[in-house]
Design goal:
Elements lengths: L56 E5 L1 H16 L3 H13 L1 H10 L4 E7 L5 E7 L7 E5 L2 E11 L3 H17 L6 E5 L4 E6 L1 H6 L3 H12 L3 E5 L3 E4 L7 E4 L7 E4 L3 E3 L4 E5 L8 E3 L5 E3 L1 E6 L6 E5 L7 E3 L6 E4 L2 E2 L10 E6 L3 E13 L13 E5 L11 E4 L2 E11 L5 E8 L8 E2 L8 E3 L20
Parallel strand pairs: 1-19, 3-5, 7-8, 20-25
Antiparallel strand pairs: 1-28, 2-3, 4-5, 6-7, 6-22, 9-25, 10-11, 10-14, 12-13, 12-27, 13-17, 14-15, 16-17, 18-19, 21-22, 21-24, 22-23, 23-26, 24-25, 25-26
Helix pairs in contact: 1-2
């Protein structure tokens, strides 16, 4: 796919509505810090000797300590002991092959595969049709994990995805604004989300549901909520900034280190400024050479080339003193509702939450027009402008890069959505580490370090 031209998809018109808006480049400018004048001391006072510079230490975590960091967040969110949280996250990663096999086995009936955390950690396979399937179990991460089959869903995943994709235009024509849509893998319903004013203008939620049902022939649920879907503006694992020519400076987050086999670079969101400069958290700026951006339908990614290959690491704490190696990549097809994932954004820092939908089409025209149902939605509460492009991960596994978020009227984050790394530009792939990490000490005195592990996404922020 050829990089889109400069007037890119993501830079669309503002849609003024309580349910859907596309607000690009909406964050405030980052003004330069004031310069303090250097005044010579009075002759009678002897200046104090200069203070020796310190060498900041960045700890590159092992795969085990990286997963333990994420497990600490899980333990807090689900009120379980840390050792139990660690076992569950290990089981989450170790169970992917088993759920992939279940998806193939039950492909003709499959509605979704869901990870449940209460009353116990288990895998739920949701199927269309009424024929029962006996409970099973698998061994994953040292745990015996129950596999429960729930039958009776109103449609298969394939049927709902097809309906969303092929009837999106007809559904949008019923409304003043394009709604958000997604497959609920727990029920097999096509969930259409919109604001109260749009529902009322369409004759009410019940009438709208019946009209969409007549178009799609799959179960439909109308979710009337007041929220705003929008891109997360310019502002990764480390910070990059760009000045698009309006006299202001905007920031985004770097995602991951990538390569086409010859060149190397860092990813961020396509709706960020083209010419970006990587900001080393411990001093120094490194300009990235703009390669291109891909921002239509199912993508929101741009690549900035670096002179030297960046390290396949990413920052995983808010203060950017710890980083982890990127060892693997999870596809969207292998991602399940209920999976626990983490992300790091330049504005909100490090946080973790559960995947809500794996087949989501954001509202409005955030993708240079309607978005395809290829985005993955993750529960809030942390997302904000400046997080755009940031990495989504768990342990050493990379999932995707943040595109945008859905906000409640009070400004809080209902959920964010990310682009799977399946959709990197053709020919480009994720850089991965070959061995576990060790503690390192990196000097940043004077020199501007090339994003080398990204201190951005190579230390991908």
């Amino acid at each position: 796919m050829v990089p889109a031209t400069k007037g890119r998809a993501a830079r669309g018109d503002v849609i003024h509505d309580g349910a859907v808006r596309n607000l690009l480049l909406a964050i405030g400018p980052l003004w330069a810090a004031p310069v303090t004048a250097q005044v010579a001391p009075p002759p009678a006072i002897t200046p104090a000797p200069p203070v020796a510079s310190t060498v900041p230490t960045i700890t590159l975590e092992t795969p085990a300590t990286a997963l333990a960091r994420d497990a600490g967040e899980y333990a807090r969110d689900f009120a379980v002991p840390l050792d139990e949280a660690t076992r569950r996250l290990a089981a989450q990663e170790d169970s992917v092959a088993a759920t992939d096999a279940l998806a193939i086995e039950f492909r003709d009936r499959l509605t979704g595969i869901v990870i449940e955390h209460h009353p116990a950690w288990r895998i739920v396979v949701v199927l269309a049709g009424s024929a029962p399937v006996p409970e099973r179990s698998i061994v994953a991460g040292g745990m015996t994990v129950p596999v429960i089959f729930r039958t009776g869903a109103g449609a298969t995943r394939e049927q709902v995805i097809w309906a969303m994709t092929w009837h999106q235009g007809a559904i949008r024509a019923l409304l003043r604004r394009g709604p958000g849509m997604g497959l609920d893998p727990r029920t097999g319903e096509l969930v259409v989300t919109l604001g109260a004013s749009d529902a009322q203008a369409a004759g009410g939620a019940d009438l709208l549901r019946d009209r969409i049902l007549a178009i799609t022939h799959v179960p439909v649920r109308i979710s009337v909520i007041e929220r705003v879907d929008r891109d997360l503006d310019l502002a990764g694992g480390a910070r990059v900034w760009g000045a698009p020519g309006d006299g202001k400076r905007y920031t985004c987050t770097t995602g991951f280190a990538v390569t086409d086999g010859t060149r190397h670079g860092l990813t961020t969101a396509a709706h960020c400024a083209d010419q970006m400069t990587y900001v080393d958290p411990h001093g120094g700026n490194v300009p990235l050479d703009y390669l291109g951006q891909w921002g239509w339908g199912y993508q929101d990614v741009q690549i900035g080339l670096s002179r030297d290959p960046p390290a396949p690491n990413l920052y995983d704490d808010t203060a950017k003193t710890f980083e982890r190696s990127v060892l693997a990549q999870r596809s969207r097809a292998a991602t399940r509702a209920g999976d626990y994932v983490c992300h790091r954004g330049e504005t909100t820092g490090y946080s973790c939450a559960t995947v809500q939908l794996t087949d989501f089409a954001p509202a409005g025209d955030l993708c240079g027009g309607p978005c395809l149902p290829t985005w993955v939605a993750v529960a809030g509460p942390k997302c904000k402008g400046g997080d755009s492009g940031g990495p989504v991960f768990l342990g050493g596994t990379a999932f995707g890069t943040v595109k945008g978020g859905s906000y409640r009227p009070d400004g809080s984050c209902a959920f964010y959505f990310y682009m799977s790394l399946d959709y990197l530009p053709p020919g480009w792939s994720l850089l991965r580490a070959a061995s576990p990490g060790v503690s390192i000490s990196t000097s940043h005195a004077g020199d501007a370090a090339t994003p080398g592990a990204s201190r951005s996404s190579a230390r991908a922020p």
